[in-house]
Design goal:
The protein is mostly helical. It contains eight helices and no strands. Helix content is about 65%, strand content about 0%.
Length: about 270
């Protein structure tokens, strides 16, 4: 008999590796350079600079509320993500809780990677190079890739894989949060695009690769907390964690991945 758990694990590893390779390739492709150079990179020509100029010719001086709006939109995505995780915890949904934790960790990892790339590339902000704005980030706060876009895309991707029905809300929210960074004058379009690809790919790769293991670790903890919360409830049988509505690696969308719920509480 074919071991679907082994096949599923291999396919998850392959898909995760492919997503990370895509992220690395696009970040490298979109990078304006900077490696090995002591001087900051100034992007003054090219499609990204042209789009930035065109946007700010229309807007004029970027309104200060655009920067606030970009922060608010990111907070809203974060709140939606937390609510999904809280909902999974209340239902004792091991896959949902594990998936939320893993995609959250993947988003944080993507943010850390974006910070590292910034220090390597040293790209000047477009508001210092092309169009001056009053609230331009200080010198040394580099532009490529966009941290806001990385976080927004990571959280939005997490919402999509955890609750696919929320995709119609999560994807536009993530895109708006990222694009507001260009409208606010803080980033070139290529900064935002690189951040979105990095955040989305790393978050989904983490979900694919680590959620089954994290769910196995979370499941007995959820059973224990349920027993603690209901000390006199029972017949001595541990309640089975609910996983209704939670998307799981192997439950669709990524071909070739089997369902790992074949042992323990998932039997």
């Amino acid at each position: 008999m074919k071991d679907t758990r082994w096949t599923g694990s291999v396919n998850r590893l392959l898909w995760s590796s492919a997503l990370l390779a895509v992220a690395a390739a696009f970040v490298t492709l979109l990078s304006p350079g900077g490696l090995g150079s002591a001087d900051p990179v100034r992007v003054e020509t090219g499609p990204s600079a042209d789009v930035y100029r065109w946007v700010h010719e229309i807007l004029g001086e970027a309104p200060s509320w655009l920067d606030v709006a970009s922060d608010v939109s990111l907070v809203l995505i974060g709140l939606a993500f937390v609510l999904v995780g809280w909902s999974a915890l209340r239902r004792r949904d091991a896959y949902g809780v594990a998936g939320t934790a893993v995609t959250g960790a993947g988003t944080v990892a993507a943010y850390a990677i974006s910070e590292g790339v910034k220090l390597v590339v040293d790209e000047e902000r477009p508001c210092r190079v092309l169009v001056a704005i009053p609230d331009c980030p200080p010198l040394g706060d580099w532009s490529f890739p966009s941290n806001h876009a990385t976080l927004a895309a990571g959280l939005a991707a997490g919402l999509v894989v955890l609750r696919p029905r929320l995709a119609a809300l999560a994807v536009p929210m993530g895109v708006v949060a990222a694009l507001l960074r260009v409208l606010a004058g803080a980033h070139y379009p290529h900064d935002v695009l690189a951040g979105m690809i990095l955040g989305g790919c790393v978050a989904v790769a983490a979900w694919l690769l680590l959620t089954p293991v994290a769910a196995r670790l979370a499941s007995p903890l959820l059973v224990k907390t349920t027993r603690f919360a209901r000390p006199g409830s029972g017949d001595g049988h541990a309640p089975t964690p609910d996983h209704r509505g939670a998307a799981q690696p192997g439950s669709g969308g990524f071909p070739g991945m089997g369902d790992d719920r074949t042992s323990g509480p998932w039997r």
